């Protein structure tokens, strides 16, 4: 595990349907600068239509092109974003399963 990955804040996908994802970040409530950085990185990804962050509730809502069936994988593998967020846990796996079922 890289040093940047160790410093990344743990985050979970708490809701995901094609075209919309909500992420909860742990341990950064109220840190507006952190969320502004995350918003800037995610907003620059191809296919992202909007990114809303709420530092008070530690949440991020992303609207993206619904046809992008691997969006969450691109989030997890983006080098700049992975230095900020560590998308882990079964929620990310469930999102992948949900997308594959929805795409069928």
Structure commentary:
The chain has 104 residues and is an alpha+beta fold. Helices cover 40% and strands 30% of the residues. It has a 5-stranded mixed sheet with strand order 3-4-2-1-5. The chain is globular, with a radius of gyration of 13 Å.
Strand order of the largest sheet: 3-4-2-1-5
Q: Tell me the strand percentage band.
A: 25-35%
Report how far the terminal alpha carbons are from each other.
34 Å
Total E-strand runs: 5
Strand-and-helix sequence, N→C? HEEHEEHHEH
Parts with pLDDT < 50 across at least 5 consecutive residues = 1-5
Structural class: alpha+beta
Give the biggest beta sheet.
5 strands, mixed
The coarse overall form would be: globular
Considering the chains and any ligands shown, give keywords for the structure:
single chain, 104 residues, alpha+beta, five-stranded mixed sheet, 5 strands, 40% helix
Short note summarizing the structure:
The protein is of the alpha+beta class and 104 residues long. 40% of the residues lie in helices and 30% in strands. It has helices at residues 3-7, 32-43, 71-77, 79-82, 90-103; strands at 9-17, 20-25, 48-54, 59-64, 85-87.
Q: How does the SSE layout of this entry go?
A:
Elements: H1 3-7, E1 9-17, E2 20-25, H2 32-43, E3 48-54, E4 59-64, H3 71-77, H4 79-82, E5 85-87, H5 90-103
Parallel strand pairs: 1-5
Antiparallel strand pairs: 1-2, 2-4, 3-4
């Amino acid at each position: 595990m890289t040093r940047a990955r160790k410093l990344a804040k743990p985050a979970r996908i708490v809701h995901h349907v094609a075209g919309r994802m909500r992420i909860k970040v742990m341990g950064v409530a109220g840190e507006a600068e952190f969320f502004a950085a995350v918003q800037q990185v995610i907003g620059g990804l191809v296919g992202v239509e909007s990114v809303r962050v709420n530092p008070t509730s530690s949440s991020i809502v992303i609207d993206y092109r619904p046809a992008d069936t691997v969006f969450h994988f691109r989030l997890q593998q983006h080098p700049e974003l992975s230095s900020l967020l560590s998308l882990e846990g079964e929620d990310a796996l469930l999102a992948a399963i949900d997308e594959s079922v929805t795409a069928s």
